[in-house]
Amino acid sequence: MQTSTVSFKDWLIIMTFLLVAMISRLWGIHEWPLSGDEYFTYKYANERTFQLINPAYYHLVLISYSIFGINELSARLPAAIIGIISVPIFYATWINVIGRKAAFIACLFIIFSAWHLWLSQFARFYTGVFLFSSLAYYCYYISLIENKKNYLYYSLFFGSIAVLFHFSAILIFISCFIFSIYVVILRKRKDSIFSVEIAKLNIVILIVAAIIVSPWVWNRILSWTRHEQAWGYKSLLSLLQLAKYTQLSLTVAAFFGVLYLIKRENAKGIFFVTSIGVPIAAYMFMAQYMAVKPNYILCVYPLVIGAAAYLCSSCLEDRSKNQIQLYAVTSIIIVGLMPAWISHYTDRQTLDVREVVDYLEKVYKPGDVVISFVKEFDHYSANKFSILQMGGVEFYETIDWKRLKKEFDNTEYNVWIVNHYWRKPFSKSFKTWTTEKGSLVWANISDRYDYPIRGFQVYLLNSNIANIKAEILRAAEE
Questions:
Q1: Is residue 297 part of a domain?
Q2: Are residues 407 and 307 in the same domain?
Q3: Which of 25, 47, 362, 383 sits between 20 and 30 A of 473, alpha carbons compared?
């Protein structure tokens, strides 16, 4: 197999994808408030730059701060730029693995992927994982096919960059290590298309690297085990949650795309199975014992998209079908992606945590206390209220709710609770507390056209709750 030359037509496609990605990924990021973990990037970028855990994105944020100042746009711009260039780069590289039609379709899927869109507008490190894991897997595959050591070194380099964006990208090396063992074991097969020499070299390099970094890796894994699994689900349910992130139409197409790859191009199919299957298996195992979420195996997403696109391109090549049937599969997948893609924009435009701050400024009195479970609220309400920061733990049953209730139930002042409202249920203790002792006085839920629910709520806790609620409602109306 020889890598293809990028033609003039390819350049037109690349520039078109670049333009569309710029429009879709930059839209609104300068005006929307911080959301969730963006708070940590915004506030702690300087001190986290020189830590061993995920430092790459924070370096880019500091550069952005130095050019554009410290604001929401600057915090998000590195993620947006990486997300934008990942689309044309995917096309320019993976045409050599899955073909031009499949690479073109894959880029359409990336453009309309709500997960990729969200992460491209999110001031965190995940788009770096997507881009560099895509390049790492691509270079690794090319090194095996063309027996080129330099591509193996490129793969190791890009994989290392991905790890610097997020530790979870170490799964790239694990899956490539396992596939290299597979290549060596099956070296005597006549139909083997992979370089045994490159596979052996990769095994040796990764073993040496594993010995060197194993203490760091072990400490990082232990840090994840210190927290309960409140971000996601355990066992097989974690797989369903992953399918929700990757989106069902794309996930199903990828599954059958891998099966078709195995049938049509067995060796390439085994590569996709290993590269996707090993990280997913690791994720399911980790979800049983530690706090992990689907973002932690974003490294497989380029391959999932590639497999789905391969299935669609194969349908396009079947000339025995009429034109409507040829484009049906691709169209169904894109239509399946659209509700979540559109909902991303409607969500961001209709839900603003700064509205919570404005509301509390109207009703808050000296001596009142605000218990905040919303990190971004803490940021925008700085120095305006007396705040007890809880950091999004209204879903944790392990919190000492009895202590909180004892401390605040009998206070003569108003106690305000600011919390998220998601589809995931609150902990029983939190629900009991707010139901028995409090009253919901403000709420807003974003407009969406898909499954997730996202919003904010404000509860008021006070021993004289009925009179206080009436007074608050009158003040809010004024």
A1: no
A2: no
A3: 383
Say whether both 334 and 359 belong to one domain.
no
d(CA 301, CA 187): 29
Same domain for 38 and 62, yes or no, is yes
Say if pTM beats, i.e. exceeds, 0.85.
Answer: yes
The domain boundary residue, chosen from 348, 363, 378: 348
Instruction: Calculate mean pLDDT across residues 291-312.
Output: 90
Token pair for 133: 């894991």
Q: What is the pLDDT of residues 21-36, one digit of tens each?
A: 999 999 999 999 999 8
Q: How far is CA 391 from CA 84, 242, 291, 332, 386, in A?
A: 31, 24, 15, 40, 15
Tens-place pLDDT, residues 254-288: 999 999 999 999 889 999 999 999 999 988 888 77
In a domain, 262, yes or no: yes
202-225 pLDDT, tens digit per residue, is: 999 999 999 998 888 888 777 766
The residue among 253, 271, 269, 252 whose CA lies nearest residue 261 is 269
Distance of CA 385 to the CA centre of its chain: 32
Q: Is residue 290 part of a domain?
A: no
Residue with tokens 């293809």: 4
Question: What are the tens digits of pLDDT across the range 216-251?
Answer: 888 877 776 666 555 566 667 778 888 888 899 999
The two three-digit tokens of residue 426, written as one number:
């609150």
Residues 329 and 401 in one domain: no
- Report pLDDT digits (tens) over 89-125: 999 999 999 999 999 999 999 999 999 999 999 999 9
The domain boundary residue, chosen from 329, 348, 367: 348
pLDDT in tens, 397-440: 667 777 777 777 666 788 899 999 988 788 888 888 787 778 89
The string of DSSP codes covering 166-229 is -GGGHHHHHHHHHHHHHHHHTTT-TT--S-HHHHHHHHHHHHHHHHHHHHHHHHHHHHHHTS-S
333 lies in the same domain as 402: no
Closest CA to 303 of 257, 236, 358, 349: 257
In a domain, 188, yes or no: yes
Token representation of residue 474: 């009158």
Burial of 326 (0-12, 13-18, 19+ CB in 10 A): middle
Residue 454: CB atoms within 10 Å: 19
- Number of domains observed in the structure of the chain: 2
Structural domain for 399, as ranges? 354-477
